[in-house]
């Protein structure tokens, strides 16, 4: 709101320039009345060029329209009447504009229609509640008048009784009038009693109709909207779009709570009127039924809106601090904060969670000890939220259950149970609320992280709403798994470039040991959990997931810019790389992830076979890993290797990588020392070919680059190397090549005069 306050201070041309930004597409009144909300949203977090963020944009824009509709609804008074119409018109207009112009317009229109239906239902509930309130007041007024007339009847009867003490003449004179009056009053009372009974039955029927609509509305909000929010929250754990805020859901739940409470109070007042004036009939049973129904409705609302706003980490390491936030969406409306409840967190096993949902006695068992596991809920006046922030929890110890079959510790699921107790309405209703976190996997060492992440990924991706904790299918269709790992990959690498169809075919070939390049061949295939992360890939000592996770980690830490640039093909096997490169000029290279090593990337390039004239072949460097890139970056390594000329298919390497080269730090530091620089080289490409003109060996990596950049001077100081650097597949051993780099470094450390005696001047 601070920005808008500053904008209101503008004058002259600046003011006119600011006004020109607004128009029919976004009226300035919307900016004014929603200024605080607008400035509280993360508009810049949405990448307008990324189609994957359409859903996030849709939710944010729809929230804007919902806020505008809410603002319109709360306008009262003479001035508020016109503003209500105006803001409502703007909301409808924005819905229409988005539907016609936005690529997500159709989804926006559908979402807005759903929100509009919910708001219309609330308006209908408001009118019904107001109607029953008016009927209840009318009933109360008629009943009070009935009681007055009943008292009049008793007074007449007392007068008739007192006539017995009068002389017969006086009694005969006054008795007929009293008898006539009593008959008239009793006839009226009989008619009015029937009328009151009808009023009571009519009121009960109207309450039944209201409660039916309340149940329907509550089902839509709790079983549809809130469950969808929880599902989005779970998918966000796999890298899906953020689940979105809870403000709209809370506003709906608060409207439900307010309407339910009003109707509950009305039913209680109707019961009080019945007790005040009992009239035989079915009303007593109807009121008991209504009271039971309304209590069930409010109980379901309160227990369902006790939710986890911020989930604890799903891979939970012992002796490590973690946080979580729980929230009661109806806490402010029901005044729960007047006596702030305390929330307790406990870790329980999958079996204990099942027993808890079956209401079986778990004897307050837990599966571990959490430090700092109690927190008082706090009410935030500005936002109207009631929440408990656990900021410094730590799992001190864990008690594991007996494992089943081949299940490992990283497949065992736990959950954090949050529970509390509080009263509503001056202790009229006492609620015990509980909620379970998403499943967590407990580890004691960082080496278990990747396997634990696999368990969490599978659970988040394939869990079904309302499941028994924490059952997931043992096998899923390959396209379903592709969606899950693509979502995870983009989130981990923080890239808009996801896995292409060709990448997914490569992964399918790896997962199913297949050679088919047709994506359709894999659409109906299923992958089991065992294939995913229990059984090793053929001929390897790691699973499919462990290999894929290694690729993600390497890309995230060291290769993200190159992946985003499209410089890394990555998901290509050795044979495919050879087929692709053999049709290209010598010096063409590509980058692919290693098949044989977790978290490795190799450079494959095509060049002449020095052992056989006229024959070309594809060479593969031993894979680089995180350890290697911590010494020298990928771009610098490619720069060092001068025999690499073109990135596949035909891009000069410096055009692609030069912006990532590390500039030279220095030349000579003094007369006695030179700057140390570590470089990568392949000292003996295959065999040393003597140069008859110079008598010195020639190396493939001494060729010129098509667009060279400045490199440190290369001195002829390399010692003779044997062919042991090459493996049987033509791969280079990185350790051997780095020995050369270290030798260069050692030579450069020597004083200048001892190494290049006469070069100083």
Automatic annotation (TrEMBL):
Location in the cell: Cytoplasm; Nucleus
Q: What's one GO MF term for it?
A: DNA binding
Family statement drawn from the similarity comment of this UniProt entry = Belongs to the transcription factor STAT family.
Gene Ontology biological process terms, A to Z: cell surface receptor signaling pathway
Q: Could you confirm whether the keyword Phosphoprotein appears in this record?
A: yes
Any idea which UniProt keywords this protein has?
Activator, Coiled coil, Cytoplasm, DNA-binding, Nucleus, Phosphoprotein, SH2 domain, Transcription, Transcription regulation
Record domain SH2: where:
563-664
The residues forming the signal peptide are: none
Tell me the superkingdom of the source.
Eukaryota
What residue ranges carry the coiled-coil annotation? 108-142
Instruction: List the protein's name.
Output: Signal transducer and activator of transcription
What the entry lists under InterPro entries is as follows:
p53-like_TF_DNA-bd_sf (IPR008967), SH2 (IPR000980), SH2_dom_sf (IPR036860), STAT (IPR001217), STAT5_CC (IPR046994), STAT5a/5b_DBD (IPR035858), STAT_linker (IPR048988), STAT_N_sf (IPR036535)
Q: Which organism is it from?
A: Amphiprion ocellaris (Clown anemonefish)
The GO cellular component terms are: cytosol; nucleus
* Primary location class: cytoplasm
